[in-house]
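Notes to self after the Tuesday call (sharing in case useful).
The group wants a holo model before anyone commits to mutagenesis around the pocket. I volunteered. Ligand is manganese (II) ion. Logging inputs and output together so the record is complete.
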Amino acid sequence: MIKRIAILGATGSIGTQALEVIEQHPEKFEVEVLTANNNANLLVAQAKKFIPNTVVIGNKEKYSFVSEALASLPIKVYAGAEAIAQVVQMGTIDVVLTAMVGFSGLKPTIKAIEAGKSIALANKETLVVAGDLITKLAHEYKINILPVDSEHSAIFQCLVGELNNPIEKIYLTASGGPFRGKGIEFLRTATSRQALNHPNWSMGNKVTIDSASLMNKGLEAIEAKWLFDLKPEQIDVIVHPQSIVHSIVQFEDGSMKAQMGMPDMRLPIQYALGFPDRVKSNFPRFNFLDYPALTFEHADVSVFRNLDLAYLAMQKGGNMPCVLNAANEIAVDCFLKQEIGFVDMSEVVEKTMMSSSFVPMPSYDDYIMSDEEGRRIALQVVSKMR
Ligand code: MN
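Result:
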């Protein structure tokens, strides 16, 4: 049976790699919907190649360009965030791959779950912001959330066949990013160009900056809490610079299972799309002799404070992870625009968390408001730094 896939965020790093996977397996996967926020040129090129039923361009100003470029093809074209939230409910879709960046993933993910679609979740911010809402909905509509994030895919793979065996704890591995081992003085003058130069993984800008600041691992801890129903103290982070062990589950008998492989996002993408089957691939294989030493070390949270801030938000619960995420999205954006320094990002997040109103049991509307308030306060903090 062919799975029909909707890719939200088709022109990003995960989206383009997902299309590589799909292209190699036309007998298993078919592209039904492609959406992009702004990259109209690439979206058009992808649509011409894969001939999906529907494409949506988020930026409405680019609608006429996309619809004219695809006019001779049997492809429906829409524009705007509302259209993205609507097309995910199309009856012909089997799996929705959520690969857009940040908070914008929340609404279409909710709509897709309500339409009973399996979710291949690459947009970790959705679970960070509103994990309780999303997991409740997934339960209610009896749909699978298949993690695409490599660490969570690893844990998910380790849990296959362990349905009734409780998890004692998990270890999320972190590469440490380009600034591993650096002190605070170095980080004060670190540039976005240095931060974007990740040693192991090729990813989009937002996640690469988050990876350099260790916020990515903080967001992933919160993501893991919701995906695997864990308490904060069951989630540990260990720095593993080679990025071969993708994460580890420890069971109640003390036994540990790890999933290993080359750092290649096509692997977790393909596992999520193909689940429960493993699909034959020609990706490069791991060779032990190329990696004579796999090493592990603690993250230096006195230098990389974001990891602590994310755990604080997770322990506090309610809307606090949503506030953390909003402040971080602003901080990363301002860092990339060179308006603030690398170390300032943690300060923006911390001050925003301290000044935002706390909502212990947020509704969907509370999350929308917390996100807005978090962004507003974060921008105020940034303006005082200039
Ligand atoms: Mn990851």
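Two things stood out.
The CA atoms of residues 189 and 341 lie 7 Å apart.
Residues 3-147 form a domain with the Rossmann fold fold (CATH 3.40.50.720).
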